[in-house]
Specification:
single chain; alpha+beta; Ubiquitin-like (UB roll); five-stranded mixed beta sheet; 5 strands; globular
Length: 92
């Protein structure tokens, strides 16, 4: 099972869980497993077609999945998936 690190702003949708051990052979399948367990998080991660929203970045270790095979990137039981939502606001 790959470990998904849940960012603090999204933990209210995962019963305040900081991590999730998901099943799946790919990043996409593991995220689907997360959204099946915690349905309220789905709208914050995926668009209507099931693809990651533009403002969400997903990493395996230090690698952005966009530099790999996106949702089709393979995971192993030792993989650590990090979700990084864009943060807007503030002033310069």
């Amino acid at each position: 099972m790959a470990k998904i690190i849940i960012p603090t702003p999204l933990r209210k949708f995962t019963e305040n869980q900081a991590t999730f051990n998901g099943s799946g052979d790919t990043v996409g399948a593991t995220i689907v497993n997360l959204t099946e367990t915690y349905p309220d998080i789905k709208q914050h991660l995926l668009d209507e077609s099931g693809k990651f929203r533009n403002f969400v970045r997903v990493f395996i270790g230090d690698e952005d999945i966009k530099a790999l095979q996106n949702e089709a990137t393979e995971v192993t039981k030792d993989s650590v998936i990090s979700i990084v939502p864009a943060i807007a606001g503030g002033s310069i």
